[in-house]
């Protein structure tokens, strides 16, 4: 057995593996201050890892003993190591992060758990599923990306994070976020206030994501100086968006004509991400969705990537995934 970790090991970013036999693995962590974050309140993070991976985890001081099948022990080691590294980087460790890194560990070893991380002014955003990581990689490599799938899979959130990162790095000069205000339809005129006050409720999710990535003062300054624009889809007509990171959210609620109009706004030095859930179309019955139309037409066009999420990628409350799966099952069941 190796000697216990001493203060000389403080510079390390990984726990030291103390011992491993046929059914037991021991890890030692060199910074006790981070253990409360790693373990969670009342060891809730360890309990979650135990339940998900089928192992037994026993913490003693700065050491953790993992007991269980070899493959599960190895996965638990990767999860604990990955979470510990994130804690050292100042990253928030909550239940969602633990769930995410467990999902990622199913598809990759420890060395790949942190790949695809997006650094914004306020936080480090890390993909929580393999598909999310593929999505982030696609956004970084392509000028146009379609993100298709159910609510709660991080399509919009990750796109806004990539936009904030690109703006901070000077890769683009501005961010343009848009949504079709289909729910309001022609009833906008009956809502109180000016046009901005009428459409803002439909754009609120975009504001929320942006404020999660950037300090409020920078968002306010960006909005005032037109470096950040959040507007309904109708406001995009007749424009050319150059050197911009452009996101169209809830794109399933566009018509084919609106979608073509939006996609052809792409200008020099710009990137575009289109997100939507094909199963939640709010258009009038019989009206074709521009998202489904465009994804079929542009499927094999070079430079355009399409990433499809499933219920397995939902990172909201666990019940959301079950709800989506239940609805998908009903939709696939033939009517009698």
Main features:
12 strands; 11 helices; 17% strand; disordered N terminus; 336 residues; six-stranded parallel beta sheet
Largest sheet report = 6 strands, parallel
Mean pLDDT: 82
Give the SSE order as H and E letters. Answer: EEHHEEHHEEHEHEHHEEHEHEH
- Uncertain segments are 1-13, 184-190
What portion of the residues fall into strands of 2 or more residues?
15-25%
Structural class designation = alpha/beta
Number of E strands = 12
* Overall spatial form: globular
The largest beta-sheet arranges its strands as 9-8-10-11-7-12
Tell me the span between the first and last alpha carbons: 66 Å
Rg, alpha carbons = 23 Å
- Residues in helix, %: 25-40%
Structure description:
The chain has helices spanning 35-39, 44-53, 70-88, 95-107, 130-141, 155-168, 195-213, 216-224, 256-263, 290-297, 318-332, and strands at residues 16-20, 24-28, 56-60, 63-67, 118-119, 124-125, 144-148, 174-179, 228-232, 244-248, 271-276, 304-308. It is α/β, with parallel strands linked by helices and 336 residues long. The strands form three sheets. It has a six-stranded parallel sheet with strand order 9-8-10-11-7-12. A four-stranded antiparallel sheet has the order 1-2-4-3, with helices on one face. The protein has a two-stranded antiparallel sheet with strand order 5-6. It is globular, with a radius of gyration of 23 Å. Residues 1-13 and 184-190 have low confidence and may be disordered.
């Amino acid at each position: 057995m190796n000697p216990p970790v001493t203060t000389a090991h403080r510079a390390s970013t990984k726990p030291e593996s103390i011992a491993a036999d046929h059914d037991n693995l021991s890890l030692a962590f060199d910074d006790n201050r981070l253990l409360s974050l790693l373990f969670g309140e009342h060891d809730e993070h360890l309990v979650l890892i135990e339940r998900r991976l089928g192992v037994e985890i026993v913490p003693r001081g700065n050491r953790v003993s993992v007991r269980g099948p070899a493959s599960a022990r190895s996965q638990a080691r990767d999860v604990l190591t990955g979470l510990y590294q994130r804690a050292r980087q100042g990253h928030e460790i909550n239940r969602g992060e633990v769930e995410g890194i467990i999902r990622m560990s199913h598809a990759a070893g420890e060395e790949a758990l942190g790949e695809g991380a997006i650094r914004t002014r306020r936080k480090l955003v890390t993909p929580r599923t393999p598909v999310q990581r593929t999505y982030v990689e696609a956004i970084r490599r392509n000028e146009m990306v379609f993100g298709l799938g159910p609510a709660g899979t991080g399509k919009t959130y990750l796109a806004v994070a990539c936009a904030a990162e690109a703006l901070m790095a000077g890769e683009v000069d501005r961010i343009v976020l848009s949504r079709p205000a289909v729910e309001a339809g022609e009833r906008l005129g009956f809502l109180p206030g000016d046009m901005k006050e009428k459409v803002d409720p439909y754009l609120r999710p975009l504001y929320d994501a942006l404020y999660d990535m950037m300090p409020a003062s920078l968002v306010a300054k960006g909005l005032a100086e037109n470096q950040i624009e959040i507007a309904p889809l109708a406001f995009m007509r007749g424009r050319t968006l150059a050197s911009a990171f452009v996101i169209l959210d809830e794109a399933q609620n566009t018509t084919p004509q609106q979608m073509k109009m939006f996609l052809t706004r792409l200008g020099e030095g710009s990137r575009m991400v289109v997100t939507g859930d094909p199963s939640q179309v709010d258009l009038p019955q019989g009206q074709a969705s521009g998202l489904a139309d465009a994804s079929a037409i542009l499927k094999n066009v070079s430079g355009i990537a399409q990433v499809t999420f499933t219920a397995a990628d939902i990172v909201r409350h666990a019940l959301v995934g079950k709800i989506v799966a239940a609805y998908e099952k009903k939709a696939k069941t033939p009517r009698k």
